[in-house]
Amino acid sequence: MSFSTGGALRAIASPLSRFRSVEERIGILGFTLALVFAMSQSLWAHEFKVADIEIVHPWSRETPAGAKVAAGYLLVRNNGTEDDRLVSVSGEIANRTEIHEMAVDDKGVMTMRPLGEGIEIPAGGEVELKPRSYHVMFMDLRQAPKQGESFAGTLTFEKAGTVDIEFSVDAMGGASTHMDHDDHGG
Ligand SMILES: [Cu+2]
Question: Which DSSP letter does residue 43 get?
């Protein structure tokens, strides 16, 4: 191939070449990327990041009137080379929050148990908190989650630290409407 890297770089840079300096070009490029990133954060993907950890589509469900607990779900992806651990979660709608695992006991009954140690997120892997599986349990609710609204929460990872996120609230029993959020290439 006679195609050189320098030529390819010039070809990429040429639409920006009417700007005077390299600094100016980099500035414009950076601004454009930042804008695209900001838009994708807020409008489409509903993703959050902290260090090597990516959090995709945190959501909750509207609860029946008088409910004392609500569930939260999200996908956590670890793009790093070291295992991490989701150790705690909090949400503004609840006085207390636990990380739960749903399991079938030896009598075939579905039970929930709190995971005191949190959930390991393997290096290069992902874990989904979803209905009938791992989930966040908002307890002693201060405020009932309402469909179409969202509420703030925080996730704390052993290595990556703490990140503020937003849970969007779906209709009661609306889990299947979130199939469209599975197209993240994982
Ligand atoms: Cu639970």
Answer: I
